[in-house]
């Protein structure tokens, strides 16, 4: 079904109205566009999914379903594409939204954390120090978790300021981590093993996403 839907969408103009009759979990993943610009880019462009109103709604519903009933205080999104899903999730949950930025953009007091992103580049991210108080329960949202370096840096920033990301070791303390895909990399497995996670890829499709197919 996903392959058939992908074939329908391989046109220069996207149909923003079409929704497949059988809406299996993750049907909207076929809306994502493959990389046509070479190896220095990510292998998929999820932003095409965000253009489809029903696709975006169903993606958010799947991401937030594991956290239904959890006492979330704030949603934090990671620069830059995590801002889209994070802000949308915050609006659905009626919570505030905190932007975790690449370093050098905030004009207030910040805490910084170096990290290595999925491409192997060394970077630094930062967060304002006045938004997270001890015990604040935060749902961390990013578009994609490939190597896990970016998300681990965001977790470190939140925890250094006293915020809580749901650890799986007792006692469980909501909220957690959400992304469209959490790849089966060493870093992705570490995050799954230590934190409550939500993602949108059905188990039967996970190997294809791990192989970037």
Automatic annotation (TrEMBL):
Oligomer status and interactors: Homodimer.
Main enzyme class: transferase
Pfam families for the chain: Pribosyltran (PF00156)
InterPro entries on file: Adenine_PRTase, PRTase-like, PRTase_dom
Organism placement in taxonomy: Eukaryota, Metazoa, Chordata, Craniata, Vertebrata
Cellular component, GO, one term: cytoplasm
Localization, UniProt: Cytoplasm
Pathway(s) annotated for this protein in UniProt: Purine metabolism; AMP biosynthesis via salvage pathway; AMP from adenine: step 1/1
Name the record gives this protein: adenine phosphoribosyltransferase
Family listed: Belongs to the purine/pyrimidine phosphoribosyltransferase family.
